[in-house]
């Protein structure tokens, strides 16, 4: 893998140049891998990404063996943001802490539970967050049948924390399963991640940014929740 990895690494650096595709064609011919001559430049990029994770020693595992990493927890909490007082989220639902749903109704229309009337601390919000998190982990474990890298699992948990535990099954056209789930379970990981870009509640700016961040996490393993 060594020489091939180095060559791909160099070629990927010139991925956006006109010379990239001819260079990779020439390379595969010179190494006798003629079956790869028709491979497109984007496919080489995917090959390189897989080689990067292979070299790092990371392995995909069954979702049933995974839970959200510490970096994943921090990533989701950063996107959710902390609010000490009850507020109406972008859907108009009464929420508090790190995106903890109180009720699917506006705060002014309900009687707040006693524990939330005077607001909560970050510590209390953190406990609520960790209590709620397993339902989204279990949803990924239930709905995704292909093995995942840790960062892929974290990205999907973040998506479901925001959209709901049943989203992968019911968030598609006509209330059917999403293309995210279909593609990943077919082994088309990158295509599945790309489908997240459409989950923005008709282009809500904050959700557009979050989806881009989750796609970046899924594809590249980069935990960047800056926004």
UniProtKB/TrEMBL annotation:
Identification of the protein by name: Lysozyme
Residue ranges crossing the lipid bilayer per the database entry: none
Gene3D superfamilies: 1.10.530.40
EC number, UniProt record: 3.2.1.17
Gene Ontology BP, a term: cell wall macromolecule catabolic process
GO MF, one example: lysozyme activity
Domain of life: Bacteria
Swiss-Prot/TrEMBL catalytic activity: Hydrolysis of (1->4)-beta-linkages between N-acetylmuramic acid and N-acetyl-D-glucosamine residues in a peptidoglycan and between N-acetyl-D-glucosamine residues in chitodextrins
Span of the signal peptide: none
InterPro entries for this protein: Bacteriophage_GH24 (IPR051018), Endolysin_autolysin (IPR033907), Endolysin_T4_type (IPR034690), Glyco_hydro_24 (IPR002196), Lysozyme-like_dom_sf (IPR023346), Lysozyme_dom_sf (IPR023347)
Statement: the UniProt record of this protein carries the keyword Cell cycle: no
Presence of the UniProt keyword Zinc in the record: no
Keyword terms of this UniProt record: Antimicrobial, Bacteriolytic enzyme, Glycosidase, Host cytoplasm, Hydrolase
Pfam families in the cross-refs: Phage_lysozyme
Family, per entry: Belongs to the glycosyl hydrolase 24 family.
Enzyme class: hydrolase
